[in-house]
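ok so for the tutorial part 2 we go from a plain amino acid sequence to predicted structure tokens. step 1 is just haveing the sequence, like this:
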Amino acid sequence: MSFAETTKILAESRKVIEDGNENNTATLLTLILSVVTSVEHSIKKIESGMESIEKIKTTVTLLSADLRTHTKNLKDLEEKSNTLETSVQAMSDMYDQCKTEYKTSSNQISALNKKVDYLEKKLEQSQKSIGQSSTKQVQDDEIIELKDKILDLQCRSMKNNLIFTGLCHSKFENCENKLRGFIRQELEINHFIEFGNVHRFGKPGLNGARPIVARFIYHSDLQFVLNNANKLRGAPFGISEQFPAEIVKRRKKLFPIMKEAKQQQRDVVLVRDRLYIDGQLYNIQEDDDFERHMESDSAVNQAPPSPLRSPPNNRITPDKKTN
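step 2 — the prediction. this is what the tokens look like for a chain of 323 residues:
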């Protein structure tokens, strides 16, 4: 019943009451019943509307909570995206720096090689035209000095490289992933290590597999791996620093001397191709027997050797290099 109909019924009821006719009592009751029924129906509609409002309120509350959750997740994703972008930029900068350093070293080596070739040709021409041994000696010294510089540059370009032997080869392998798994399982190193390049090279060695050479971005990571290399004792694997062939040849000559000195409990340090025994540089070109270098401190004091350089502070012992 509409509001107009209800108003009409109330007006008729008021009129009946004012007339005071008893015959109209039934009519009045009927009108009152109609009004009460109308009111009850309206109340039910209002109650039904309130229930709908409560449901809408609950739905809005849930949607608001979901919106706050999505907003927080969106903010977290934005922060992670910014962090990832920063990391990628840092890696890109490091790659550019390594690329620039490698290019510079390559250019220096190329220039020195050209100088060596030039001096060798010049030496050959001088030997044909001039028979003076002093001139030849000077030129030979210059060539040796240039070769030493080239060797030093090669060592510097390899200073962040390690060679891993014994890692079996598999078809379609990813050398970097294989090396990361080896470091994690065999050396128990779980933190992430940045590599510049990882690949196989050379001839098959341990376990019939070619060695893997890895270039470390950070020298501290390389040193940490070397410090944990002793965990490979008794295992068919090996870890060593990468050196030019000439340095490797010199080191092989020093290994027996180093081993014997260690057996005599001497302080032994091998840095590149230089062997320090009790703080003194060992000269491998000497013809004297090794026992002469193992004399007592009193004998050394009586016949002091010529001044030699002390080993560097960041020395690396052979135990940490090879196994």
